[in-house]
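Tutorial, part two.
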Amino acid sequence: MPSRHPLDIALVDGRWLAVGWDDGHRSEFPIDVLRDFCPCATCRKSRLDRADQPNSPKKRSLNVLGLSTRFEIEGLEHVGRYALGCNWKDSHRSIFTWEYLAEICPCDDCRAERGGPPVPFDPMTTV
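Running the prediction step on this input gives:
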């Protein structure tokens, strides 16, 4: 996938993150997918733990424990010249590098180029 740098970033209706790239491409990320693809150590470990136990029942959280605000963005900010910082209303913080956002673009063109749907960052498969 070519190296991309964002020209514009917008939060659309609190439900989508839209990124316009310098090569003319446009990515639109549903907020719940973006949160599920968080590359932080805690979220990566959680994904790996779930993958290790595919037959275990899903844990349920009560809304009072933060589930209701898990997919709400409180603020966005640049992190240096290489990433987007995303502050979630449940006090979680994600840092998405431009490279990672380009790699997980969910559009049909990127899906075809990748040969399938985007896959969250997994340190065990990164070379």
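The CA atoms of residues 41 and 93 lie 11 Å apart. In part three we will examine how such features are distributed along the chain.
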